[in-house]
Design a protein that fits this description.
The structure holds 2 protein chains of 2 kinds.
Chain A lengths: L2 E12 L36 E2 H13 L3 E2 L2 E2 L2 E4 L9 E4 L6 E10 L2 E14 L3 E5 L4 E5 L6 E7 L6 H17 L12 E11 L9 E6 L2 H21 L7 E6 L4 E7 L9 E2 L6 E2 L2 H10 L4 H10 L4 H7 L3 H14 L2 H18 L11 H12 L5 H13 L5 H7 L8 H14 L1 H8 L3 H14 L6 H14 L1
Parallel strand pairs in A: 13-14
Antiparallel strand pairs in A: 1-11, 1-12, 3-7, 4-17, 5-6, 5-16, 7-8, 8-11, 9-10, 12-13, 14-15
Chain B lengths: L2 H11 L5 H22 L19 E2 L9 H5 L5 E2 L2 E5 L4
Antiparallel strand pairs in B: 2-3
The chains are: A alpha+beta, B mainly alpha.
């Protein structure tokens, strides 16, 4: 019998805020254990939550990027949760009136384009971290991550293969990074995925027994886990190897197997009820428009615009993958008006530095206007390309650097003083008579050797065309 | 309330009740059942969901990080700590 796979995803995204969702503690990843905590996020009696406005901004932004309806009145609810990593014994989340509902995300796979429906996006707090200590046989609790803001993006069960899941997650990550909603770094846990999966005979409209794999945080692990679960389900149905039950499972990427964790809870088990400590949030037109107007264009629109400016499909695609690159490109282009030059500097020189620093592209902190000024200086022949790269490196370390001033202060301005250049040429010719003779005897490469020596002596601060002309003149006169 | 429901609730709430307590809880919920019947008989089909008795909205704050307490201050009253962690009975799922 042929089967089809039915997959729905719940993706948790940690929002790019400075502070937590209900208190002012730092929301930064890492830190000494229990260093980002206060009585509110430690669940101490009498503390009341105060909502971080930027969390609502980012929740709305995510919904707008995913074509959702934004609920103008949104509320928080309590979800019962009895583990020590959430000290209140409940998670503050959204159940009755989430911030966003009914969206779509278009994916593209080898089978073409497909719209995946988004059921809802809700805001909630993250749980803390538990470390299990075998020596003392206790659990150790770190509340740094407790109350760090999350959105959970719940899809309808519209996905039907690992390939589609990967396309969905990559598209989601790209859009949310673009809108600066989150860094979506799976390795740091700022993007985690729960996979709900079942199989059914092809053509059937009845859903099979559903299992959930929680907290998956790598694309490759998700792919392997889906393939394993599909084959486990088919084996159970065809060969009766086990009875399929609705349950939560844990994926062990080293063993390449999933293991039962617990019976799957149903919504009733969580006993959601409205949180009396957080009153409804009403998003008025002014607030809604401020978020909408701050959203960037979609990557595809930017790519098309860059192609219109004369960039190749490849270059435009590279730039439009990251909002940091787009912003830098657009600001630099405004100054120097050469799209191709800016693209070359960004994709080649800037990316080399980013890679050397082991940054991600979104960590690019370069001021686009300054980059445009630097490119103008090089294009106008006022600074040599080699020295231009040195200035660029300095700009990565100090974003306040003005490239023109820096070039002057460090002797990087190209000299057109012909008497100085000629004196250097004569000196080099005297030191390397063999190359002079070789060139006169027709060896073109000898000219390049002399050119290189002159340029080194001039520290790169010379118009290459002028140097070459003067060098040939001097050799001919000699 | 069925006995099975009570067992499930015990598990969800991480509680362990003795037989006397179980009888008392079942009795308590049996009385609530009749009250719920009255509440459920009210037609709320066209009534907007109410979150609070007063029409008040939440206040929001700006996204500014502030460190107001140290770990030592917060852990002063903790029964057990270890290396800066709160220490609790072992919990492994």
């Amino acid at each position: 019998m042929k089967y089809e796979t039915v997959i729905g995803l719940e993706v948790h995204i940690e929002l790019a805020t400075e502070s937590k969702i209900f208190c002012s503690c730092s929301a930064k990843f890492g830190g000494e254990q229990n260093d980002h905590v206060c009585p509110a996020c430690c669940g101490m009696p009498g503390m009341l939550p105060v909502v971080n406005k930027h969390v609502v901004d980012l929740g709305m932004a995510a919904g707008m990027m995913l074509n959702c309806h934004i609920n103008r009145t949104t509320t928080f609810d309590k979800k019962s949760y009895y583990y020590p990593d959430l000290p209140c014994s409940y998670q503050t989340t959204q159940w009755f009136s989430p911030i966003c509902v009914n969206g779509t995300l278009q994916i593209e796979t080898s089978k073409g384009k497909k719209d995946i429906r988004i059921k809802q996006i809700h805001m909630e707090e993250d749980a803390g971290k538990l470390v299990h200590d075998d020596w003392t046989n206790t659990s150790l609790v770190d509340f740094n991550r407790t109350s760090v803001p999350l959105i959970e993006i719940v899809s309808q069960p519209d996905l039907s293969s690992a390939e589609e899941v990967v396309a969905y997650l990559e598209r989601l990550r790209s859009l949310l990074r673009f809108a600066k909603v989150s860094e979506c770094r799976m390795e740091q846990g700022s993007m985690r995925c729960d996979v709900n999966l079942s199989i059914r005979p092809e053509g059937s409209d009845k859903l099979g027994v559903r299992t959930e794999m929680k907290n998956m945080n790598s694309i490759s692990a998700i792919t392997r886990a889906i393939e394993y679960e599909v084959s486990r389900h088919i084996d159970a149905l065809e060969n009766g190897t086990e009875e399929l039950v609705q349950e939560t499972r844990r994926w062990d990427d080293i063993k390449g197997k999933s293991f039962a964790m617990r019976n799957k809870e149903t919504a009733g088990d969580y006993r959601y009820f409205p949180d009396p400590n957080v009153m409804p949030i009403v998003i008025d037109d002014e607030w809604f428009d401020s978020v909408k107007n701050a959203l960037p264009e979609f990557p595809e629109i930017k790519k098309a615009k860059y192609i219109e400016l004369g960039l190749s499909e490849y270059d435009a695609g590279m730039l439009s993958e990251s909002i940091s690159l787009c912003e830098c490109f657009e600001a630099a282009y405004e100054v120097c008006k050469s799209a191709k030059e800016v693209a070359n500097w960004l994709i080649s020189d800037c990316m080399n530095i980013v890679n050397k620093k082991q940054w991600t592209v979104d960590m690019l902190n370069l001021d686009g206007k300054s980059l445009g000024m630097l490119i103008s200086l090089v294009m106008e022949g006022k600074v040599g390309r080699t020295n231009g790269k040195k200035i660029l490196e300095a700009m990565f370390d100090d974003s306040s650097i003005n490239p023109g001033e820096y070039a002057e202060q460090n002797g990087f301005i190209v000299s057109n003083d012909t008497s100085l250049i000629e004196s250097v040429i004569k000196e080099v010719m005297a030191q390397d008579e063999k190359s002079v003779t070789d060139y006169k005897n027709g060896k073109e490469k000898a000219l390049m050797a002399l050119f290189g020596k002159c340029m080194r002596q001039l520290k790169g601060n010379c118009d290459p065309q002028l140097l070459q002309k003067l060098l040939i003149d001097c050799i001919n006169k000699a | 309330m069925e006995k099975e429901t009570l067992i499930k609730l015990e598990k969800l709430n991480q509680l362990r009740l003795d037989d006397t307590q179980k009888i008392s809880v079942i009795d308590f919920f049996a009385k609530r059942d009749s009250e719920m019947e009255i509440i459920n008989s009210i037609d709320t089909k066209n009534t907007e969901r109410m979150v609070h008795v007063m029409p008040i909205l939440t206040v929001v704050r700006d996204d500014v990080e502030k460190k107001l307490f140290t770990r030592d201050q917060l852990q002063k009253g903790a029964p057990e700590t270890m290396d800066g962690y709160w220490q609790v009975p072992r919990l492994v799922e």
